[in-house]
Amino acid sequence: MESGLIATPPDDDGNIVYPEAKLELENGLHQLETLLETNVDKAFDKFEIYVLRNILTVPGDLLPYVRLKHYEVGAPLSSFVIMS
């Protein structure tokens, strides 16, 4: 292996070109990207579960007092925003 790398001729700029390494580098970068994406995805899943369970919840004793604007009796229709 070492003799093959030493025998590789340099390109026009004097840099040694390793054509065999290109595929290995691309494969390694793809594996690294996949690993990073998987870990970030798992971390966001954990964050989402935490937020939904601990931050965006309404305690059970307050549920009878929570009422959305469109459920209020006698709410004027002009108070609703119509999205198109």
Structure at a glance:
With 84 residues, this protein is mainly α.
Protein traits:
mainly alpha, 84 residues, single chain, rod-shaped
Question: What would you note in describing this structure?
Answer:
The chain is an all-alpha fold. It contains two helices and no strands. The longest helix is centred in the middle third of the chain and has 37 residues, at 19-55. It is rod-shaped.
Secondary-structure blueprint:
Elements lengths: L1 H6 L11 H37 L29
Class by SSE composition: mainly alpha
Count of helical segments?
Answer: 2
**Strands, count:** 0
Apparent shape: rod-shaped
Are there runs of 5+ residues with pLDDT below 50, and where?
Answer: none
Query: If you compute it from the alpha carbons, what radius of gyration comes out, rounded to the nearest whole angstrom?
Result: 30 Å
Main sheet?
none
The string of secondary-structure elements, in order, is HH
Mean pLDDT: 80
As a percent range, the share of helical residues equals: 40-55%
Terminal Cα span: 66 Å
Approximately how much beta-strand content do the residues carry?
under 5%
